[in-house]
């Protein structure tokens, strides 16, 4: 509940005079306070400090060596499952289990991400980015960049996860009925809009703000499909909650049929002829392990597919949105990226080969790294569970008590040059055994899309009426990123539509 009201409550408290409004409660008691604080607290208190709250103690660490030590010691500093249980929507998954269960699921998930699947990601990203660009360049200005990038991300997941390809449709090209056909052939309706509710067309007009869409995702996680299923017969059809319940039922039904189809195909196909989608890989790997009594249950497969698509969708879309607006404010970076893309890739996109092209597009990849350095969409929390753990920081040994949250200070190690080095200073995909299993997936998608967008085109902010200069427009976009970004479900630009963009041919 505090996630929904923290900033609003604290904004009121901060208006109180003196220390009543300026204190540790208002400074540290909201999500992503670290983004606003950056290095300040560590400059004041050192490489490690503790905040004490009625709920638990929170230990913040900025020492790269200590961070790497913590990530390596998975048994001493496990993931805090209490904080991730909300994504047990359709079954337990990699993000919500520990111990042997985690090892089994991690092994299964690893089979989903392979070179054959990355080939699918590459081709889907190129095609969708090309069509998105065609939509953008037809318009004098675009304020739907975030929603369009969300569509791209969803469709890449549809192709790579389930073997379903969709054509790109821009924000004003989608209608409330354009994808309302048979649920079995409309993956976007049945899985993505059910699970993550990204598109305003699944709820009544007026269209939701992006923040509202993410709040609906929180709602489905809080209530769960079982509760929604029980309440569904009693909810009026006009209620948004009824529509949410309907789409959860669609999702469950679709996943069940898809699972049965994959089981049947696995009996008929050899490994070499099998589909390389994530769903296919997960089902086959689970069947292989089941022979040794270690496969995934049906609900665990559903849970992991939801987790992969939820995590892969939201994190990628937020990173894309930050990156496009950063690029719009930095034309010299665009020129730098375009120079490399032109040297690596010819004009004919059909000849852009994943195996030979992706490793060479280092500047596109650098844009992703820099975006994640400044605005990491999701951070990792560890804890000590029921035991104590020792941690060495700058030659001193600290004993961390039980039930202590242990938090890597992402923004500090990412932005304070004194910490920079080879290990423990870039945590965009976390570190250690529980790092992001889909890191290369996101890299391939991002690089392919950025290469498509910037090879022959340039993006700029649209100046405001009244003769705003290009330089002032770029500074305005940077100010919007800095001052109007915050947490909803993940860290995101709250109102990217306030910065209209325009695309011009180089």
TrEMBL record:
Query: Which InterPro entries does the record associate with it?
Result: Cyt_P450, Cyt_P450_sf, Cytochrome_P450_monoxygenase
Which Pfam families would you find in this protein's record?
p450
User: Annotated Gene Ontology MF terms?
Assistant: heme binding; iron ion binding; monooxygenase activity; oxidoreductase activity, acting on paired donors, with incorporation or reduction of molecular oxygen
- Alphabetical UniProt keywords: Heme, Iron, Metal-binding
Presence of keyword Iron = yes
Q: Which domain of life is it from?
A: Eukaryota
| Protein family | Belongs to the cytochrome P450 family.
Protein name (Swiss-Prot/TrEMBL): Cytochrome P450
Taxonomy, top ranks, is:
Eukaryota, Fungi, Dikarya, Ascomycota, Pezizomycotina
């Amino acid at each position: 509940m505090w996630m929904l009201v923290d900033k609003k409550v604290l904004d009121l408290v901060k208006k109180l005079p003196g220390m009543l409004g300026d204190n540790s409660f208002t400074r540290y008691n909201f999500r992503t306070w670290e983004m606003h604080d950056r290095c300040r607290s560590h400059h004041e208190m050192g490489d490690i400090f503790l905040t004490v709250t009625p709920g638990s103690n929170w230990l913040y660490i900025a020492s790269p060596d200590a961070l790497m030590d913590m990530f390596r010691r998975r048994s001493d500093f496990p993931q805090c499952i209490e904080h991730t249980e909300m994504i047990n929507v359709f079954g337990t998954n990699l993000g919500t289990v520990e111990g042997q269960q985690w090892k089994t699921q991690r092994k299964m998930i690893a089979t989903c991400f392979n070179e054959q699947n990355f080939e699918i990601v590459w081709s889907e990203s190129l095609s969708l980015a090309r069509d998105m660009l065609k939509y953008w360049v037809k318009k004098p200005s675009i304020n739907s960049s975030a929603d369009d990038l969300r569509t791209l991300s969803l469709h890449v997941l549809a192709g790579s996860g389930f073997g379903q390809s969709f054509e790109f449709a821009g924000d004003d090209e989608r209608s409330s009925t354009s994808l309302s056909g048979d649920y079995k052939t409309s993956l976007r309706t049945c899985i993505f809009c059910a699970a993550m509710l990204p598109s305003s067309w699944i709820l009544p007009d007026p269209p939701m703000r992006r923040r509202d869409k993410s709040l609906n995702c929180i709602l489905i996680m809080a209530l769960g499909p079982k509760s929604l299923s029980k309440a569904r017969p009693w909810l009026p059809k006009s209620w948004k909650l009824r529509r949410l319940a309907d789409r959860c039922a669609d999702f469950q039904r679709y996943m069940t049929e898809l699972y049965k189809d994959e089981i049947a195909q696995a009996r008929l196909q050899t490994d070499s002829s099998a589909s390389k989608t994530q769903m296919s890989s997960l089902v086959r790997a689970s069947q292989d392990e089941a022979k040794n009594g270690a496969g995934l249950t049906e609900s665990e497969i559903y849970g992991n597919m939801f987790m992969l698509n939820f995590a892969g969708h939201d994190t990628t879309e937020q990173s894309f949105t930050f990156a496009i607006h950063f690029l719009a404010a930095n034309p010299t970076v665009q020129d730098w990226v375009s120079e490399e893309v032109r040297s690596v890739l010819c004009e004919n996109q059909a000849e852009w080969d994943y195996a030979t092209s992706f490793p060479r597009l280092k500047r596109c990849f650098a844009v992703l790294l820099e975006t994640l350095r400044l605005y990491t969409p999701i951070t990792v929390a560890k804890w000590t569970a029921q035991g104590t753990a020792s941690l060495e920081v700058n030659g001193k040994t600290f004993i961390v008590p039980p039930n202590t949250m242990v938090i890597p200070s992402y923004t500090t190690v990412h932005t304070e040059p004194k910490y920079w080095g080879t290990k423990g200073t870039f945590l965009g995909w976390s570190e250690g055994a529980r790092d992001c299993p889909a890191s290369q997936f996101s890299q391939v998608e991002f690089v392919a899309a950025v290469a498509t967008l910037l090879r022959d085109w340039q993006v700029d902010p649209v100046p405001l009426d009244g003769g705003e200069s290009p330089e002032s427009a770029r500074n305005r976009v940077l100010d919007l990123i800095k001052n109007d970004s915050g947490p909803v479900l993940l860290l995101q630009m709250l109102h990217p539509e306030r910065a209209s963009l325009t695309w011009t041919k180089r």
